[in-house]
Each structure stands twice: as structure tokens, then as C-alpha cells.
Amino acid sequence: MLNLTKNKIIDTNIFYILFVCLFSFIINFYYSKFGTFPIDTFLHYDSGSRILKGELPIRDFWIVSGLTTDFLQSIFFKIFGINWFAYTFHSSLFNSFISTIVYLFFLGLKLNRFKAFIFSISFATLSYTISGTPFVDLHATYFLLVVTLLIINNLNTSKKYFWPIIIFLFFLSFFSKQVPAAYAGLFYSIILTSYFILKKNYKTLIINFSSIIFFLIFLYFLLKIFEIDLKSFYIQFIDYPRSIGSERLFNFNVTFESIFNKYKFLILPLVLLIYLKLKKKDTLEARVNFCIFVSFIGLMVFHQLMTKNQIYIYFLVPILFGVLQSELDLSKNKFKNFFSISLIFLLVFITIKYHLRFNENRKFHELTKAALSQSVKADTIHLSLKGLYWLNPHYSDSAQNEIKILKKGYDKIINSNKKIMLISHYQFFDSITEKNLNSPNKTFTIDGASMPLIGNKYFEFYKNFLKNKIDKSNINEILIFKHENIPEEVFTNYINKECFEIYEDEIFYIYKLICPK
């Protein structure tokens, strides 16, 4: 009888795990096809395919984040071909991976399997699905989430081999985007170092420190192998992004009312959770784990306030509710069953609310006011984009017209025999034309987030980077789509005016380079 019960438990767990895996993959894959916000949607498309052609971030095109995501995308393109399917398969598989980790985390909190399943399905709905396509902030955040959950799970065990894995995943988070990993690295290291010293667990400290040194040395040799200049790496990926963050911190201005209105479903359960924990006499390990958990929640809210992206941290709601549920299950409150049922119903309501806003209405891509029924199949641009339904919020009333412009642009690029540099947020033209379009950046904004502006200490460095790329690639013309309204300063600030002539055709502003190479 005992063996039969155990087998049933195992079978039930396998069923739940498989369902969470499939659901999280399918929901992301389904919603990823609706709508486009080019500067975000295609952030890792051309960069992933360019890596397969031998072009590398930092060395061949300027980046401020996204190394991990770019290289991971290149692997998916290598396996499945350079197409929309491979692009969204990547993000969907990632959603499946993190949702399964979250389900196992809930089981580790001693939640019953059904509750863990409900909370995990909510998480899968509110996590990567809001974007659908690979996105730098999401990869960075969810790698860090896995790091956080593994630390909490591993602190009470003697499995020291987990710590190098944790540090490796932390590096993947940092090299996806420097923050929030940098914030967490500071807080977690202080908390964990203090804990290991108190416990006189110097062996784990040595393992962690040695792992960090190993991965840094490994990174150094990778840069050498790929001929990426160490100074360029430091400037592009470390110091220049830090200067952007410093400016945003200096201009940081929010009110408690605005924070509460946006994050009330995070703040209220967190306050209740802190109250319940303060009433308990926990072990040192439990207190440290809780400090790590609260630090992660707080840092994610801070990071969201600092970033210019749409809100994407509502995935924290089911995690907070799951931890709160575990505390209720362990409490002796006679009303805990009532609270538990209320918690689940509230979570279902919140999940539906944000699902409709972010998944159905594609708010993350700013399509809430657009009619998704007016979208156009993107394979009319190129067959490799099959599966994407094109609707750009900047041209939501004229998707057909935008498609016509892009097709004409495609034809002009294909038929040109000149060395072209394309400046555009449609970062898929390098892939679909199968030509090297020598894009110097992945984004082209004049808010300081894309490249150093006049007055920045790295302005001259970027200016030389751009000039060297133009010279090395023997560029004849620089093209900018007229309808994109990308400011010409993204180019003209860095090239002497006597070195180019400007003219235009139906589709492009064309900058003909006339200075000798």
C-alpha cells in the first residue's frame, strides 16, 4: 500500500511538472506572435544571426547589454535556422525552464502539489509571456530569480557543488544585463559572507571565491580567443552603462502613492509576510533565506522604477503569494484554511487582470490602444518571419502601409551593389537580406542609452569606433528609413559634415560618404 501511494505521488508530480512545462511553453509561444515593438521585439534577432556570420558584440557592433541573450539566440538559430520560430522557441523554452524551477521551489516550501501547480501556472502566465520574444531585462531577471531560489534551497544543505552552478547562473544574469544582477551581487555577498563567517563555514566561502575567480579568468580567455579588446569590453559593458545608471539614479523621483498604486499586490503580501516572519522564532538559516528573498523583491521593484521599460515584475505576485501560503500552512491560525482559499481566489483574479492587460492587449509592446485584428502576417516581408502577426504601435492604423515600405526597403537593399550601413530598429534586415548591413548598434536613440552623446566622456571613443567600422567595412552609403524618424544625430554627431552628402529616395534618407578612406 505504501509503495502504491508513493508511486501515485510520483505520477502526480510528473503530471504537474509536464503540465507546467507545456503550458508555460505554449502560452509564451502563442502570445509572442501578436504585435511588434521593433526596438524591443527584434533586439536580439540580427545580433544572434550576426554571431553565426562571425560578427561579435563589442568587437563588431556596439552594445551596452545583452551578451548572454545574443549568444543563446545564436545557438537557437544554429539549430533551427534563422527564422521567427527559432526566435520565439528560445523565449518559450526559457519560460518553461523558469516556471518549472518555480514549481519545484514551491514544493520545497512544503506546499501541496495542487497549490504549487496553481501558483506556478500563474507565474508562467505573468512572466516571459508579457514580452513573448527574447528580451534582455527578462533574461537577466529570470536568471537572477533562479540564482535566488537556488540559494534559498541550498543554504540548508551540504551540497557544496551547487555553489559554482549558482555563481555561473549569476554571471549569465549579469552578462544578460548588468542590473539587477549587480545590485543583488552586492546585497547577497554581504548577507551570505556574514552568514558563512558566523557559521565558520570557510570551505563554502573558498568555493564561492574560487568559482568567481575561475569564471573571470575564463571570461578573459574568451575575450582573447574572440579578439575582443579588453578596454572596449570594459567601456561598452561596464563603465558606460554604469554612467547611464548613475544619471537615472541622480534624477530618481517617485512618491509612495505612485509606488503603492502600481505595486500594491506586491507590497501588501510582502508586509503581511514580514509580519508573520517577525512573530516566529526562526533558525539562522531561515532568517538569512528570508533576507535574501526580501532583498530580491526590493531590488526588483527598485530596478523597475529605474528602468524605462513597461512594468514586467508582476510575476513576483504568485511567488510572494506562494511563500505567504507556505507560512499560512505552517501557522496555527484557526482561520488559515479560509485565508488559504481567499489567497488562491485573489491570485486567480490578479492573474486574469494582468493576463488581459499584458498578454491579450500586449501592453508591454504598447499595443493596448491598437486593434490586433488589424495585424498583418509578417511573412509578406520575408518567409523567415512566418508566424509573426505584424502590428507596430507607432503605425497601428497602417500596418499594410508599413509592410509595403519594408518590402520596398528590402528590394532596394537586395538590389544594391554598394557597401551599406543600415541604421534602423528593424533589426532583422541583416538576417533576411543575408547581406552584411554593418549596423553599428542594436538601438538608435538619443537619450544616452544607445551610444555616448556629446559631452559624455566616451563620446570620442564611440566616434572612433564608428569611424573605424565605416573604414574597415568600406561603407559607401548609410541608410535610414524615412518613416522611422530616427534622429540623424545618431550619425551626424560623429561624422564630419564635409564627409557626406545627403539625398533621399522614396524609402530612405541616404548619406553618401565622400571622404577618402
Descriptive overview:
This protein has helices spanning about 1-30, 40, 45-50, 65-80, 85-110, 115-125, 135-155, 160-175, 180-200, 200-225, 230-250, 255-280, 285-305, 315-330, 335-360, 400-415, 430-435, 460-470, 490; strands spanning about 375, 390, 420-425, 475-480, 500-505, 510-515. By secondary structure, it is mainly alpha-helical. It folds into two domains: about 1-30 and about 45-365, no CATH class; about 395-515, no CATH class. The strands form two sheets. It has a four-stranded mixed beta sheet, with no helix packed on it. It has a two-stranded antiparallel sheet with strand order 1-2. β5 and β6 form a beta hairpin.
Structure described in brief:
It is built from 19 helices and six strands.
List the helices and strands and how they pair.
Blueprint: H1 2-31, H2 38-41, H3 45-52, H4 67-80, H5 84-108, H6 113-126, H7 136-154, H8 162-176, H9 178-198, H10 202-225, H11 230-250, H12 256-279, H13 284-306, H14 316-330, H15 336-360, E1 376-377, E2 389-390, H16 399-415, E3 420-423, H17 429-433, H18 459-472, E4 477-481, H19 489-492, E5 500-504, E6 508-513
Parallel strand pairs: 3-4
Antiparallel strand pairs: 1-2, 4-6, 5-6
Helix pairs in contact: 1-5, 1-6, 3-4, 4-5, 4-8, 5-6, 5-7, 6-14, 6-15, 7-8, 7-9, 7-13, 8-9, 8-10, 9-13, 12-14, 14-15
